[in-house]
User: Which sequence fits this backbone?
């Protein structure tokens, strides 16, 4: 089996490659990177996988790569995935996320690879403005996106549905709720709070953690559970259909911050940084994964406290 992972150098892509190598021997892994991609997440994998350079918004580059690799499965993880950045560069988020996916689908059509299965990594941000009587969120909930990033993911989601209906592309649409773990970029909340706390532990900064909106509540899944879900989605889910992947539990950013500070055992001051506040924020994202569980048997296995401990340990090892 030949598997292509877009965004393999990133947080989720590198963990997915780890999972496949550990649990599915014999699978040949190809990964896409951009010329400027940082390689530290996959440095330990370079002798076990094939990494190819490709710009997903360049249609000719994508067509040539897909024709050469001829994958059996594609995990499409490459994206502009940081919500605040989408406010500053909305056109880039829309272009990267929607046109990049369009080019993959067109490359599959041109190479006559309609039997290739494609997992489309959507997001709970697609749901956007969720009302209290709508939680936990099911796949049937209305989509009310509140950021350019969320709009781009809705575009990817419906593009996958359209290409399945129009051309039979075997795309499975997953809406992953927040996921985190070791290697998560420092701009994302769990990693950011943890990195600040570790820098305080190491006396590299004053005992102050800077925060944004602490009232928001999120449903966090460990990335190692998430990539296991992505894999099984292409084994047991229906093409064209959509599935939530989450834990069914939510914590507030305030609770998260308390856990991080408690983990250090230090007295730490908390200050709000206006630059960390968004023009509009989703107050609550709490998912229902019963449809995905029924289709696959998957359920989360790693407790959030372990996830947070592993993130803290990751920063302790990588901050000098």
Assistant:
């Amino acid at each position: 089996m030949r598997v292509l992972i877009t965004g393999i150098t990133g947080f989720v892509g590198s963990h997915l490659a780890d999972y496949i190598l550990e649990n599915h021997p014999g699978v040949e892994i190809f990964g896409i990177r951009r010329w400027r991609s940082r390689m530290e997440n996959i440095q330990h994998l370079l002798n076990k996988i094939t990494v190819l350079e490709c710009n997903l918004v360049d249609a000719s580059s994508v067509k040539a790569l897909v024709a050469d690799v001829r994958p059996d499965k594609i995990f499409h993880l490459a994206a502009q995935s940081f919500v605040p950045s989408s406010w500053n560069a909305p056109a880039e988020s829309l272009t990267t996320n929607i046109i990049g996916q369009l080019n993959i689908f067109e490359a599959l059509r041109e190479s006559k690879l309609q039997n290739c299965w494609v997992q489309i990594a959507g997001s709970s941000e697609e749901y956007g403005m969720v009302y209290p009587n709508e939680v936990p969120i099911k796949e049937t909930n209305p989509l009310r996106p509140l950021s350019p990033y969320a709009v781009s993911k809705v575009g990817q989601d419906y593009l996958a549905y359209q290409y399945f209906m129009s051309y039979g592309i075997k795309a499975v649409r997953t809406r992953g709720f927040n996921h985190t773990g070791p290697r998560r970029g420092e701009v994302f909340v769990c990693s950011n709070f943890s990195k600040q706390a570790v820098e305080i532990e190491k006396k590299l900064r004053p005992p102050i953690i800077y925060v944004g909106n602490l009232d928001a509540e999120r449903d966090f899944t460990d990335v190692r559970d998430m990539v296991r879900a992505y894999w099984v989605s292409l084994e047991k889910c229906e093409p064209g259909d959509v599935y939530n992947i989450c834990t069914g539990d939510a914590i507030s950013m305030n609770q998260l911050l308390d856990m991080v500070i408690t983990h250090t055992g230090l007295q730490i001051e908390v200050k709000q940084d206006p630059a960390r506040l968004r023009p509009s924020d989703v107050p609550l994202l709490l998912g229902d994964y019963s449809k995905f569980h029924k289709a696959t048997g998957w359920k989360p296995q790693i407790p959030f406290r372990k996830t947070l401990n592993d993130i803290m340990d990751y920063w302790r090892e990588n901050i000098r």
Observations:
- The mean pLDDT is 95.
- The chain has two domains: 2-180+220-249+289-296, 189-217+250-283+302-318.
- Residues 90-110 form the longest helix (21 residues).
- The two ends are 41 Å apart (CA to CA).
